[in-house]
Amino acid sequence: MSFYDLEFNDSRGNRIQMKQFEGKVLLIVNTATKCGLAPQFDELEKLYQKYKSNNFAVIGFPCNQFANQEPETNETMVETCKMNFGVTFLLSQKISVNGKETILYSLI
């Protein structure tokens, strides 16, 4: 299995295959709208806008496992990111990064 064999659901539940990003530079980041680092959304969006025409993409993977910093639902999270930070880059559904709900991928 390679990185491009992996899949995830976007914030609307659509299946996204990493192979669609093959040949692009990807910035994959853990996000949370109530995190003290939430202003990172502004900078991430600026990077995305500046380089998206040069085969660059940003994918945000939100998680609520750290001090409930992503309390929004998948639907309201996208709207919050758009309204508060101008985010247009791709966001996944909320994920678990530790515990029983975590899916581990082994890249060979």
Structure description:
- This protein has 108 residues and is of the alpha/beta class.
- The protein has one domain (3-63, 73-91): Glutaredoxin (3-Layer(aba) Sandwich).
- The protein has two helices and five strands, in the order E-E-E-H-E-H-E.
- It has helices at residues 40-51, 74-85; strands at residues 7-9, 15-17, 25-31, 56-62, 90-91.
- A three-stranded parallel sheet has the order 3-4-5, with helices on one face. A two-stranded antiparallel ribbon has the order 1-2.
- It starts with 6 loop residues before the first strand and ends in a 17-residue tail after the last strand.
- The model has no long low-confidence stretch (mean pLDDT 87).
Task: Explain the layout of strands and helices.
Blueprint: E1 7-9, E2 15-17, E3 25-31, H1 40-51, E4 56-62, H2 74-85, E5 90-91
Parallel strand pairs: 3-4, 4-5
Antiparallel strand pairs: 1-2
Short structural description:
The protein is an alpha/beta fold and 108 residues long. The chain contains 2 helices and 5 strands. The protein has one domain: Glutaredoxin (3-Layer(aba) Sandwich), CATH 3.40.30.
